[in-house]
Amino acid sequence: MTEQTYIMIKPDAVAKGQIGRIISRFEDAGLRIERMELDTLTPEHAAKNYAEHEGKPFYDGLIDYITSGPVVKMVISGPNAVAVSRKLMGPTDPATAPPGTIRGDFGLTVDANVIHGSDSIESAQREVDIFFGNSQ
Ligand code: IDP
Ligand code: MG
Q1: 3-state DSSP: the chain helix, strand, coil percent, rounded to 5?
Q2: How does pLDDT run across 19-55, given as a tens digit for each residue?
Q3: Which of 111, 117, 96 is nearest to 22 (CA)?
Q4: Does the beta carbon of 116 lie inside 6 Å of ligand 1?
Q5: Tens digit of pLDDT for each residue in 67-90?
Q6: Does the global pTM surpass 0.90?
Q7: Catalytic site includes residue 116
Q8: Does ligand 1 come within 6 angstroms of the Cβ of 92?
Q9: Nearest atom of ligand 1 to the alpha carbon of 91
Q10: Taking Cα atoms as reference points, which of 106, 96, 95, 113 lies closest to residue 25?
């Protein structure tokens, strides 16, 4: 089933010059880039995206990190785009993400973990609306 997902290349990866190689992972898998924009998130946008983590010990650091520089916001589509993207990204912590995954190949620590991707079809719809919709 064709789906849309929200993918964001995080500030550490943009700063390291990894945009092109990361985007290639999605294109190589056959997924399609529908929308793309380089942008620096406001704290309000960041808080909306990470509302589920408010109150956790890493929350303040996460908001500081994700607003620290430009990110690449994308809408990516294709069959099973949500699950396929999560597979390409790998587990949350680059230290344990296997080689061959984006986080395993391009990152080192969980506090700068290269990429965000929606974790469900519902999250994807919500996040596409936050970052590309009318509520922006
Ligand atoms: P996910 O990005 O793989 O879906 P989540 O558990 O939803 O992982 O966490 C959201 C984001 O919060 C992570 O991508 C990472 O940037 C950050 N994060 C999660 N756990 C930690 C932690 O223990 N320390 C620092 N940052 C964390
Ligand atoms: Mg998540």
Answers
A1: 45, 20, 35
A2: 999 999 999 999 999 999 999 999 999 999 999 999 9
A3: 117
A4: yes
A5: 999 999 999 999 999 999 999 999
A6: yes
A7: yes
A8: yes
A9: 3
A10: 106
